[in-house]
Each structure stands twice: as C-alpha cells, then as structure tokens.
Design goal:
The protein is mainly beta and about 900 residues long. The protein folds into five domains: about 20-150, Exo-inulinase, domain 1 (Jelly Rolls), CATH 2.60.120.560; about 155-340, Jelly Rolls (Sandwich), CATH 2.60.120.560; about 365-505, Jelly Rolls (Sandwich), CATH 2.60.120; about 515-675, Exo-inulinase, domain 1 (Jelly Rolls, Sandwich), CATH 2.60.120; about 725-895, Galactose-binding domain-like (Jelly Rolls, Sandwich), CATH 2.60.120. Helices cover about 5% and strands about 50% of the residues. The protein has five helices and 66 strands.
Length: about 900
C-alpha cells in the first residue's frame, strides 16, 4: 500500500484460527497462514487495559524454536526459545500506552524492533536467521487481533520530475499549486537537455504539502534539492504518518547567522517539538540540497552534504517522505531515497543523445573512456584522476574471465603501487597481490559469477568485495603514497566498462540541480548553447558581462579540476561569435572575484593569449594555446568543447588544454586555500562536465554580496546660460549620477577635498562591474568648450578612464584604464601621470585637439555624454586587476569650458 497523507490503522478484529499450544510457551499461540521471505514488518492491532499479557511470535519453526515479543503489565521485552532453552534478548522497556493501539514489529536481517502506537519501544540486535511462522496470544485484558505481514525491501527511489506539468507521479499533494516546469531557456527541448525539469510549488491560502513513499520505510536517507524563490521557509519531511504527524528538517530564509534558522522538528498531532537547531538562514534564489538520515531512534539533518543537526527520538520510526512550503514559492528537484547505509549518491545520468553525439564522443566529454589514457604496454590504461585517499574500482563480471590487473596507489610507474591480478572462472576468483612488484599475497575465493567486483584501497587496506560482501582484505602497515590508478593486461573495452570512484571525487554533468555551486555574478541555470539550435541546453551563465559561478566548498591541499567548457554563440548579423574568448577558471578564490586566487584565462584578451594570474597579476602566459576558429565553416570548433585541466600540487600550479600541458607556475609564496570558479568575459559560459579529485573539502557556504547603498544626491540639469561646466561640489553634484543603476555610491566628502570644503567621492559597491558614473548628460559643443580640467584622487586598484560620446561614438581620455587595440575606442587624451596611489593630482586636457587628431573629418563635434568608467575591454569589469569592492576615487573642480 502506498502511503499518501493518511496514517495506516488496521481495525481491531478478533483472530479466529485454530489455537496451537506451541512448545515455546504456556500461552496458546494462534498462527496465521501468511509467511514472509526476507525482511518484513508485522502489524497487529492491540488493546492494552489494566493487567494482562500479549505475545507476538515470529521465526517459529517446526522444531519448536520460536521468538516473541512480550508486553505484560506495562513492560516489553524480546524472548527466544531455542533448543528447549528460553532466554530474554536485550533489555526490558516500559510501555505507557493504554487503550486501542497498533503494534508494529520490524524484523530485519540483523535486528528486531517493536513500535507501539507511534513510539519505538525496543531495538535489539538479532543474530538468529530470518524465517518462520507468525502468531499471537493474549491474556487478561490485553487483546491482540490478527497480524498482517508487510514484506519490506530497502527503499531506492529517484525522481527528476521529467514529465508533463500536471503529472505528479507517485506524489500526493495538498494545498497550493504544483507543476513540473521546463527550463526557462527559450526553445529548449527536454530530449536535448542536461536537466530539463523541476517541480514548482506555490503556497496559496494554505501550506503546500506533497508526500510520497510507503508507511513501512524505516531506515533511510532522503534528499531533495530546493531553490526557494519567495518562500520564507522550506521543509523536507521523513517518517510521515499524515499531515499532522511527521519529522521535518525546516529551514528559514535570512542572514547567515540567523538564530534557529535550521531546525529538526517533531510534529505529533499538530504539536511541534524542536529536537535540534542551529543558526544560518538561506539566500533565496540559490539551489540547496536538504537531506534527512533516519534510523529508528535517531535522525540527522544535512544541508549541502554537511551534517548540521542531529537528535535522538523514539517517535514514529517509520513512514513516508514529503516536502512543504508554508508560503511563497520554491522549486524542487532530484528526490533521492536510499537505505541509510547506502554508499554513494544519485547516479550520474547522462543524456543518451549526448553519448551518441559524434563531436562529444570524439572529445570524450561524456563517454566513460574519457577517464582513461593509454599506457606504454598493450592493455595498459591509466586513469586521469588523482586519488589522494581512497579509490574504488568496479569491474563487470564479464571481464573477469579474461583476467586483468588493477593498479592502485601508483606513482605512474606500472611496477609501482598495489597490483591486484584477478581471474574468475566457474564461481571462483583467483587473487594475487603485489606491492611495488613483489608478490605479498594470493587467495582463491568463491564469487557470484554474474555480479560486478569491487577492488578498493581505503584506510591502509586493499580489499576485494562483491555486493555487500568482503571477499578478501589485505592490510599494509606502511601504506603506499601514490595517487594513480591503472588497468593492466585489460581488454580495450574495459575503458568503457570499468569505473573508478572515490569519497574524494565529484563528477558534475549537471543532470541534477547545482547544489554545490552558487552564482557569483549573472544568472546560472540550464541555458541554451547554440541559439540557432535552441533545443540543446546545458548548465551555464548569462545576464552579466562576466557571469561567474563558485563552489560552495573551500578545497584544501592538493586537487585536480578538469572541465569541458564553451561559450554561447551570439548569432548577431550572421556572425556566430562576435568576441570568441575567455573560457576561464579560478582556484583558491574568495567566491567574490576571480581577481583573488589563481586564475586561468584560456583564450583571454580577445583570444590573443592564455595566462595564469596570481591575485590578478599575470605570472605565466602563452599565445600558442587559444580557442579554435569557432566561426569556421566546418562547425567543429563551434560545436566542440574546450577541455581544461588544472592541477594544484603543493606550490606547483599547472594548466592543461586538450590533455597537453600549456602553462605551469611555481609559487614561492603559495596562496591560501579557497573556492573554485568558472567564468567568462563578454560571453556566456557553458559547462558541459566538471570533474574534481581533491584532498579535503571544507564546509559549504554561499558568499553573500553586501547590499549596496543608494546614492541620495540628486543631479541637477545644467543651466542653459552656463558659460562652462564647473562642479566644485560645494553645494551639489551637478549632473553626476550612476549609469544604468550601477552599484556605485556618490557622496560629498567633506574630509577630502582638493580645495574648498568638499569633493565628490565615487565608491564601487561590488567586485568589478561597470563602476560607471555620468558626469555630463546635457549636450555641449566641443568647438565652444574644448578644454577639460579637474582634480582627482584614485585609491589603490582604481582602474578608470573618462569617455565622451560624440556623434554616437565613444572617445577616451585615459587615466589608469588602458584601452585595448580591439575595443575600437579612439584615445583623444592621455593623463600620463595618473596613479592609483591615493594622492591628489590635477590634469588639463585639450579635448578638441585630441579629437581632431583622432578623427580629422569630424566637424561640429557635439558631446552628448561624459562618463567615467573602466575600459570596456578591461578585466577590471570582472574584478580582476582592480575595482574590487570598496574601491574609490575623488573628483574636485571638474571643468569643461573655453580654454584658459
């Protein structure tokens, strides 16, 4: 029976069967005809009044052996009769419930539990084999009705909500509205998407609640991804009995230090009890992973894979799963239910069309063979991963008959490491282990001929296992330190069939919501890559000149990051890509700007060079590794992917492109650990796949941007009769104002003035960004007012220049911002002594003379705007090399007018 939102209660009915006096007891045990194979639950309606006893028997055999649960005079205990000897198993527990209730016995392979009503009473390890008859007996004023048997299989459920909008599948909903929604990218097709659907939940007049699963689920982990939008609170539920009885992980929106924002809540008959709580609200708009891990008597709450809450409770001990939104709306995705001890995660799901695509196959984006490279000898294949701790190699049974070797903890030499040679035949597996070329152990073990084999190194031991059975194990008191894995003597097809996993490995194909990542700039989600074929959608960023995505986790120590990147095509005026460049990566970053940490710019500077930057400064560069011709007729680069690999080993930093070493840098003063980031510049980046092998992962967090202050100064139009433009900021700001709502703060600063009482201070309130201010918005003739002069003070890191819009074209007067040759902005003035050193300086520029030199044919020049901003082609817009949060400059005595 599938539990929706109603508690399962079996009515009390008297058991009318033949009473059999079993050798186990003085009480006549009434047995039912049904038996169960494997694990099961027994449900038995009961009445407990005054004095008496009831017994629920199980595992009864023809030889007279039997086990039973006894509830007598307010106490419960398990007993066993075996070989004529009776003994109590485990402790005695009190049962305070009286009246009509329900007794549940959970019989598992290694333990037995008793639940009376909704309370776990006993949980006892059990070493007797499963199987046998089930019966009941009662005496006094205790009544036991006919038991029912429910076979129980470990739960294994996934749901990605890929179905019609109104099709809720196995979910039962109440309150609010529920709809499976396609990605927002225009023209997207579900069949061509990495992750096309999620479920949108909108609470309306009452809370929106959805439930799925079975009443008999007991020990499991349930995770669900959520992106709260307007929801002030979201909730994941476990052990759901009905809408008024459940266990919940409840999370509130709010400040990162908001007290009690994270809670484990027990709800019984509508009354709430907080079992555990911790500070830390969520930032709406980001994806998060909520998870509950429940075993009878214990519950843990996880957010983004980090355990944050924990409690013990005897409540419920079984039930379905659910979600709830009390108000507002949220998106949910990627339900995953598995046994509590399940090792692993949601299995990577790759779109079959991606696997069949010729270019994606050739470039090894999604095919399993992309993890391997050929070695020196026939049948030798090395894995691209670096396994800093454990490594788990899974080998299909079909490969064992031919025999092969697995090399673990190697340094790259086929003779180094642990070599495990395996040969399977007729249900037997021959194992031979060599350590650095010297044989140290051999063994022959029985195996299931049709089941995959796992060879693993972890915690100083080499182990061979099948399913949940350890077949053989060897402990090395001096474990090897190598990090590479290889196959030796393997058939060619092995590279498409053998997988290598690790607890320190992440593989993102973005088939699931990106809960390990947060948007630093722009909007990140499933996005179009080729507007000419909008059906194809992948994870990517848009909506900013430098879309940036960051890892929620800080990565400590050594790691390897490998990703397949691209940029969205433009398709403007029949040009596929207007500015093909910048498939960029940052490591050891602060999660705010790629100007922190080490950044790797592939095809940067308008695809003229590739470089490694340290805190925004170039430390290694080349012009020999660049983006291909994405505008070529053959479409290969247009449809292809750029494979970038970054290695950080100690103070050694290496960058690879298409498996070839491009740049390396040895840092004499290594930067501290930090976050990973992917980004671009004047393009919309796309991430096809990302793989990460790491030493240590820190706790997850989202870096929050400070809320910008609004400029309170009001600009005033220039009077028509003005003899010149002159702003001394003694009584106002003239026409000065932020451009297009840029995150810029304008203030009159009475503490810093070149002369008089005040100057204008302009402060950047984000890392990078436009940092743009309009100084003049009323047109004027440059013939009449050719001279510019002003006092200025630039704080360290300020990268700005002054720009004039003349006849719909921009012209530059450079300060600390350098114009790139490809930006098509003529320079009509250079402030040669400009320095970002915090000192006041004065400059005068003959604008008309500069304009005539730059554009002799232009006459009657009318300036419609004057703007101060960083150059359009400067990486300062990305927060690299300058203009980080808090950067300021000061202007005083700003004048444009007649010469003199």
């Amino acid at each position: 029976m599938l539990l929706r939102a109603n508690r399962i209660i079996i009515p009390i009915t008297l058991l009318i069967v033949a009473s059999v006096a079993h050798a186990a007891s003085e009480h006549p045990m009434r047995f039912i005809d049904d038996t169960a194979e494997g694990e099961y639950n027994v449900l038995c309606p009961i009445v407990i009044e005054s004095e008496g006893e009831l017994r629920l028997g199980f595992d009864a055999t023809d030889t007279g052996d039997i086990s039973w649960l006894s509830i007598a005079n307010g106490a419960a205990a398990f007993h066993r009769l075996s070989g004529g000897a009776e003994q109590r198993i485990g402790d005695t527990a009190s049962v305070g419930l009286t009246g009509v209730s329900q007794l549940t016995l959970q019989r598992r392979d290694d333990r037995v539990r008793a639940i009376v009503g909704d309370q776990l009473v006993l949980d006892v390890p059990w070493d007797a084999p499963l199987g046998g008859s089930i019966g009941v007996s009662s005496s006094g004023r205790y009544v036991a009705s006919k038991p029912a048997i429910q076979p129980v299989d470990p739960p294994m459920v996934t749901d990605d909500f890929t179905r019609d909008a109104a099709n809720m599948g196995d979910w039962e909903t109440s309150g609010g509205s529920f709809a499976n929604t396609m990605v927002e990218a225009a023209g997207a097709e579900a069949a061509l998407s990495s992750n096309p659907f999620s479920m949108h939940v909108q609470a309306e007049d009452e809370a929106a609640v959805a439930t799925t699963g079975y009443w008999f689920w007991d020990s499991y982990r349930v995770s669900l991804n959520v992106r709260p939008v307007e929801a002030p609170e979201v909730e994941l539920r476990a052990w759901v009995q009905d809408d008024a009885n459940y266990l919940a992980l409840r999370w509130q929106a709010g400040d990162a230090q908001l007290p009690g924002a994270r809670r484990l809540v027990l709800v019984r008959d509508g009354a709430e009890q907080v079992l555990d709580e911790a500070p830390g609200g969520y930032l709406p708009g980001e994806w998060y992973r909520l998870e509950l891990q429940v075993t009878p008597g214990h519950v843990a709450g996880l957010i983004d894979r980090e355990r944050v809450l924990e409690a013990r409770t005897p409540a419920f001990a079984q039930g379905a799963v659910g979600l709830a939104v009390a108000a507002g709306d949220a998106f949910f995705d990627d339900l995953f239910v598995a046994p509590a001890d399940y090792r692993g995660d949601w299995p990577v799901r790759i779109n079959p069309i991606f696997l069949a695509d010729e270019i994606m196959t050739r470039e090894e984006v999604f095919v399993p063979s992309g993890f391997w490279r050929g070695g020196d000898a026939a049948g030798e294949y090395w894995h691209w991963g670096e396994f800093f701790h454990d490594a788990r190699v899974t080998i299909p049974a079909e490969l064992l008959a031919e025999g092969l070797g697995v090399l673990l903890k190697s340094d790259g030499d086929a003779a180094a490491g642990y070599r495990v040679d395996l040969t399977g035949a007729e249900g037997q597996l021959a194992i031979a282990l060599a350590r650095n070329g010297t044989e140290v152990a051999t063994e022959s073990v029985a195996i299931d001929a049709g089941e995959a084999l796992v060879v693993e190194f972890a915690d100083g031991a080499v182990e061979v296992a099948q399913g949940d059975r350890t077949l053989w194990r060897h402990v090395d008191p001096q474990p090897l330190a190598g990090r590479l894995v290889a196959l030796l003597g393997a058939p060619e097809r092995a590279v498409n069939e053998v997988t290598v996993l690790s607890e320190h490995f992440r593989d993102y194909v973005f088939d699931r919501s990106p809960t390990d990542w947060f948007a630093g700039r722009g909007t990140w989600g499933v996005n179009t890559r080729w507007p000419c074929q909008p059906g194809w959608t992948f994870y990517g960023g848009a909506g900013d000149e430098s879309p940036q995505v960051w890892s929620k986790h800080i990565y400590h120590g050594d790691f390897v990051l490998e990703w397949f990147g691209a940029i969205q095509s433009d398709n403007i005026n029949r040009i596929r890509y207007v500015r093909p460049s910048d498939i960029n990566t940052t490591i050891c970053g602060d999660g705010r700007t790629p100007g922190s940490g080490y950044s790797f710019l592939f095809g940067g500077w308008n695809n003229t060079k590739t470089a490694i930057l340290r805190n925004g400064e170039v430390v290694a560069e080349t012009d020999e590794a660049l983006l291909g011709d994405v505008n070529a007729r053959d479409l290969a680069d247009h449809r292809g992917w750029t494979r970038i690999r970054i290695e950080k080993f100690g103070n050694q930093i290496r960058m690879y492109h298409a498996k070839e070493l491009v740049l390396e840098y040895t840092d004499p003063d290594p930067l501290p650990d930090g976050r990973l980031g992917m980004w671009s510049f004047h393009n919309e980046p796309v991430v096809g796949r990302l793989r990460l092998w790491y030493t240590q992962e820190g706790a997850p967090s989202v870096v929050r941007k400070p809320e910008p202050r609004l400029t309170e100064l009001e600009p005033t139009p220039r009077p028509a009769e003005a003899a010149a433009i002159f702003d001394d900021f003694e009584a106002g700001v003239g026409e000065w104002q932020p451009v297009n709502d840029a995150a810029v703060l304008l203030e009159l600063d009475a503490q810093n003035a070149a002369s008089g009482r005040a100057s204008l201070r302009v402060t950047n309130q984000e890392d990078g960004g436009p940092f743009a201010v309009a100084a003049v918005t009323t047109p004027f003739s440059l013939e009449d007012w050719p001279q510019l002069s002003f006092d200025y003070r630039l704080s360290p890191g300020a990268e700005v220049s002054l720009y004039l819009l003349i006849s719909r074209r921009w012209y530059a007067v450079t300060l600390t911002g350098a114009q790139a040759p490809w930006d098509n902005v003529p320079v009509i003035g250079v402030v040669s002594d400009a320095r970002a050193d915090g000192q006041w300086r004065h400059t005068t520029v003959d604008l008309l003379a500069g304009l005539r030199e730059a554009n002799p044919a232009l006459s009657n020049a009318v300036v419609s705007q004057v703007v101060i901003s960083p150059p359009w082609e400067s990486y300062a817009l990305c927060g690299v090399g300058g203009n980080v949060y808090g950067t300021s400059y000061w202007i005083d005595n700003f004048r444009i007018g007649p010469a003199g």
